[in-house]
Predict the structure.
Amino acid sequence: MLVKTTLAEILKTVFSGNVKIIDNSICGQCSKCGECCTNLLPVSQEEVDIIQKYVIENKIRPQKQMLVMQNRLTCPYYNGKKCLIYEVRPLICKEFYCYKKPTAEIAKKFSAREYITVDMWGIAEKIDEYFKE
């Protein structure tokens, strides 16, 4: 059953310590393991527009082989070693670090915009249609 929630409620749950996040970092630095590179992300329309422009300008294609290789739902812009849209990644990706506890400051950044949880594969496939024309 799906449960409706807001980003503020999710952050409150994380702040309370009720969510276990595994630290995959190496000495406090991102190990680029891809564990946080999920396909379901809360993003704003502005972020989607920026990603679309960047992907088209840089001719970035979704990494479909990753979905098959890892047999899980990873972001279409993670190639197994790095984020292909790192420069324009969504705020959730910029602020999440498995070794860093969420803060009220981060929560304020998220509450400043309206977000919707999207399937990044759906977005990637729509953007990818541009290359088929």
About this structure: The chain has one domain: 22-132.
